[in-house]
Specification:
Distance between the termini: 19 Å
Order of helices and strands: EEHHEHEEHHEHH
Number of domains: 1
Strand content: 5-15%
Number of helices: 7
Oligomer: single chain
Length: about 170
């Protein structure tokens, strides 16, 4: 993108503030920001993307021992809506994402997930490239079918051109 996505202006605030507001509206009781200068979670491998933030979530010291459901929202998907996020969060599988879209994803952070994420972190630190899809497979993730209205929300912006087109839609 050539810029810090989280700081991009969006609807009178920043993209990060929009996504935080969206998470709260969807019912989030805790919000942690992964990676980057705004992050609560320190990525164990710089530049490893969302997989590194998932690994950091798995070892975040302030999380209690009780398994908890987490929904991972990428900052560059501002068209998501609270109903879509709630639908994803409600899937009882250990992890879930919409078919064809590894993010957003929902996962239960239990002992098994923490073990999987620790193994993934070891691989990242050995300079292996690991996709979010692979993590979902390791967590026995479920693919959800998105309806037409939901698919229209699953658009992200990774380039200035995509960002411009996304802004035209919102």
């Amino acid at each position: 993108m050539g810029a810090d996505k989280a700081s991009l202006p969006y609807k009178g605030g920043t993209l990060l503030s929009h996504m935080r507001d969206l998470a709260v509206e969807a019912g989030a009781s805790s919000i942690l920001v992964g990676g980057g200068p705004h992050g609560d979670l320190k990525d164990p491998v710089a530049g490893a993307g969302p997989v590194a933030s998932l690994c950091a979530l798995g070892e975040y010291p302030q999380l209690e021992a009780v398994p908890r459901r987490w929904v991972v929202l990428p900052v560059d998907m501002p068209l998501l809506t609270p109903p879509l996020i709630r639908r994803l969060a409600a899937v009882p599988a250990p992890a879930a994402a919409f078919a064809g879209h590894p993010l957003p994803l929902a996962m239960t952070l239990d002992r098994l997930a923490k073990t999987v994420l620790a193994r993934v972190k070891t691989r990242l630190m050995a300079h292996e490239s690991i996709a979010v899809w692979h993590v979902l497979d390791l967590l026995e993730g479920q693919d959800l079918t998105a309806g037409e209205h939901e698919t229209a929300q699953l658009i992200n912006a990774n380039t200035p051109d995509e960002w411009s087109r996304l802004n035209d839609r919102s």
